């Protein structure tokens, strides 16, 4: 009698597990809403993780995308100026004197086959900075590159991309030693 009860309970459990698995398989999948290339346009707020060697910092930044250009009204230049100036007090004075630095990045975009995300290929140009130090001005030319393709995701309308400052030339001399600066934007959303 005990064996019969155990057998019935086991059979009921097996049947319920099988039905549970089939119901999971047959559930409707979440549909990702389709996007258009124009959906990328707008004002964004995003998390910026800046990495240079062992140093890492995080902050929230704003930028705008319109047509084929990503625009920073205030590009993060602290690490660049620090690499050029070296002295922390003089670096802060230079940053204050320079104020906000605007930087535009051109890009091209392509929809994926399912039209649920947009791939952005960035083509950054050199960033030229006039850095005031000790009564003179150092001309710094920063080679900015896109380290990977950017993505605008249709599911949450977020944008992700990575840039890097790979080389700095100061008054026509390559800054050496110089540790590249990585600007990681892992999650940016429209305002």
Short description:
With 191 residues, the chain is an alpha+beta fold. Helix content is 23%, strand content 47%.
What features would you describe in this structure?
Strands 1-2-3-4-5-8-9-11 form an eight-stranded antiparallel beta barrel. It is elongated. A hairpin with a 4-residue loop joins strand 8 and strand 9. With about 190 residues, the protein is an alpha+beta fold. It contains three helices and eleven strands, in the order H-E-E-E-H-H-E-E-E-E-E-E-E-E. Helix 2 crosses helix 3. It starts with a helix and ends with a strand. The protein has one domain.
What order do the helices and strands come in, and which of them pair?
Layout: H1 2-26, E1 42-52, E2 55-66, E3 69-72, H2 78-85, H3 88-98, E4 103-111, E5 117-123, E6 127-133, E7 136-146, E8 150-153, E9 158-170, E10 173-174, E11 181-190
Antiparallel strand pairs: 1-2, 1-11, 2-3, 3-4, 4-5, 5-8, 6-7, 7-9, 8-9, 9-10, 9-11
